[in-house]
TrEMBL record:
Cofactor: FAD
Name of the molecule in the record: Aminoacetone oxidase family FAD-binding enzyme
Domain RsdA/BaiN/AoA(So)-like Rossmann fold-like positions: 4-429
Keyword field contains Transmembrane: no
Source organism superkingdom: Eukaryota
Length: 445
């Protein structure tokens, strides 16, 4: 059966591309394209369904493209143009036009007012299937993807379990991080694949630090600063072959877990240092400043010796607003001060030790654990091989990519879903244009 567009992958990027393709064709008064979405699973949009703990973090309310793009460890430069075309503002407008009321939380994350991902899924399915008659086939595992060069249309041939063979003018790979999809891309046009490593993960601490923090599981700290000194690796935002060392430093909330530490600051650090951490097998030291907004920590401790707090116990009286259990742990377990010590009896050496624990505590990481359902991969189709304005391959005409199959990943907070909406939109708009038949004898340069 012939299709104008075959989309492999029934996730956010695939659905949004199908809708954008049909909408653009309608706006140009073109014939409605014959589009099919193939998904190997039993239902579509599963990752949207579990996004944001089932609430669906649609995007982030950071509307300036350059500021938004800075939240992508890989792809920040290449996404600038696409985000200017279809960014978070356009995403909010698109969903609200389709009856999905959205709200912005204090940290900038955007959710449906319903607090249910089903609201977002219903809007996508309604637009694709009911409004634009996009075919959706589940349990349709693609066995092969190839192309017969030199025929009239240089059409793509797709073998799916639901149909023996499909033929298409254009194919979009929106599979997420899929080794199979990367193999197809490499075979079709010798696309370079950036090797995948995990991104967005929590830190598992070594046994000593697990024991030290054992009583803190569930405790959160509103703002910390994390710094890691590890051997540099090639910066994927720089041109191929060039290396640029970048500091691995992040600031934000931190959460203690049963195995170590998590929270936005840790997750962002894991994303920006994904390759460095993989290279050292997730064994490194992370330096924590628990009071980044307090530049004069030692001075404050020294003043407490003679001030109004001098008769109070150091372990019980928190000068910097930290959680009570964390403060006691830092005083007793990390700075090794006696729990019965009063501020009046705090020596300069003891104050220095406590200040060091507060501003530069070095804890040992000995592993990683995924951040629930928000697991993301760093790696994929090299962006140098893709025209990001259309998300079309520079090597194979009519082959497009969208979402996490590309070497693009963002930090937590709606940035990865926005990548799906943005690249899906750019690919969909480009695929609405009929291909001009050409007699290709080799992939495009």
């Amino acid at each position: 059966m012939f299709y104008d567009v075959v989309i492999v992958g029934g996730g956010a990027a695939g659905f949004f591309a199908a809708i954008a393709c049909a909408e653009r064709a309608r706006s140009l008064s073109l014939r409605a394209p014959h589009i099919v979405i193939l998904d190997a699973g039993t239902r579509v949009l599963d990752k949207v369904r579990i996004s944001g703990g089932g609430r669906c973090n649609v995007t982030h309310a950071l509307f300036e493209p350059r500021a938004f793009a800075s939240h992508y460890p890989r792809g920040s430069r290449e996404l600038l143009g696409p985000l200017s075309t279809f960014g978070p503002r356009q995403t909010v407008e698109w969903f609200e036009r389709r009856g999905v009321a959205l709200k912005t939380e204090a940290d900038g994350r955007v959710f449906p007012v319903s607090d249910s991902s089903e609201t977002v899924i219903d809007a996508l399915v309604r637009a694709a299937v009911q409004e634009h008659r996009v075919e959706v086939k589940t349990r349709a595992r693609v066995a092969y993807l190839n192309r017969q060069l030199g025929d009239e249309r240089s059409a793509f041939h797709v073998g799916a379990s639901a149909d023996d063979a499909l033929t298409a003018d254009r194919v979009l790979l929106a599979t997420g991080a899929s080794r199979t999809a990367w193999q197809w891309a490499a075979q079709l046009g010798d696309h370079h694949i950036v090797p995948p490593v995990p991104s967005l993960f929590s830190f598992v601490l070594d046994a000593e630090w697990k024991q030290c923090f054992a009583a803190l599981a569930g405790v959160s700290v509103p703002a910390v600063e994390l710094h890691v000194a590890v051997a540099g690796t090639p910066d994927e935002r720089a041109p191929r072959g060039k290396q640029r060392r970048r500091p691995l430093r992040q600031r934000g909330p931190l959460l203690f877990t049963h195995n170590g530490i998590s929270g936005p600051a840790v997750l962002a650090l894991s994303a920006f240092g994904a390759r460095e951490f993989a290279a050292c097998n997730y064994r490194f030291a992370v330096q924590v400043n628990w009071v980044p907004d307090e530049p004069q920590v030692l001075e404050a401790l020294e003043q407490a010796r003679t001030g109004a707090d001098r008769r109070k116990l150091v372990s019980a009286h928190n000068l910097f607003g930290l959680p009570r259990r964390l403060w006691r742990c830092l005083v007793v377990e990390c700075a090794h001060l006696d729990a019965s010590l009063r501020y009046a009896d705090l020596s300069h050496a003891a104050a220095t030790a406590l200040a060091a624990a507060l501003t530069g505590l070095r804890v040992q990481v000995h592993g990683r654990s995924p951040f629930k359902e928000e697991f993301v991969t760093a790696g994929g189709i090299d962006l140098a091989d893709v025209n990001m304005s259309t998300c079309e391959s520079r090597r194979v005409r009519g082959l497009h990519f969208a979402g996490e199959v590309l070497n693009v990943d963002g930090v937590t907070g709606g940035f990865n879903l926005q990548n799906a909406w943005t690249t899906g939109y750019c690919a969909g708009v480009a695929m609405a244009q009929p291909r001009v038949p050409v007699a290709e004898t080799a992939p495009s340069p």
